[in-house]
Amino acid sequence: MSTHSVRAALPFAALVLLLGLGAAHAQSRQSSTPSTKAAAAAASADDDEDGNAQKERRARYVARAFDRFDTNHDGQIDREEFAVGLGKYLDRQRNAFNRDFKAADANGDGKLSKEEASDANPVLAEHFEDIDANHDGFLTKSEIRASIREQQTRVTVEGDDQDDDAGTAAKKD
Q1: How would residue 80 be classed by pLDDT, with cut points 50, 70 and 90?
Q2: Are the beta carbons of 27 and 16 closer than 8 angstroms?
Q3: Residue 139: helix, strand or coil by DSSP?
Q4: Are residues 24 and 66 in the same domain?
Q5: How does DSSP assign 10-59, residue by residue?
Q6: Domain that holds residue 35
Q7: Among 35, 56, 89, where does a domain finish?
């Protein structure tokens, strides 16, 4: 798979997610906006099979996310709302990352030792050596961001590969 198609897949995946969220939210608000069976199934999925609690949390999350993007509250997200909403979401994520990194950086040197990483986030400590790209014993913001991007790309590429494998298997049948 080419780098271009991987980069194209990420915005497409975000768009699909938001379209599904929109349909699920519109249905939950009992809007007259029709929703697809797939979106309804996604909204009612209950991964831990506990009945209502997970569904209710998911419904509240979907409603809040949709409302953040649907700024004119017409029950739809147009391109401009999507672009603005995604920009705001990414800004919130960036600010949270910077805040959390600063809080974890106990000595304020702009990098995390293994001890600081361990105190802040067990997952970060567990994967410390993998994330520490230059193997200097510290994690910088750029190393953590690069690791996150790599994982996002890996998930997208693996998902595309699985789709390709499924398509190949279907052709054999």
Answers
A1: very high
A2: no
A3: strand
A4: yes
A5: HHHHHHHHHHHHHHHHHHHTT-SS---HHHHHHHH--TT--SSHHHHHHH
A6: 1-89
A7: 89
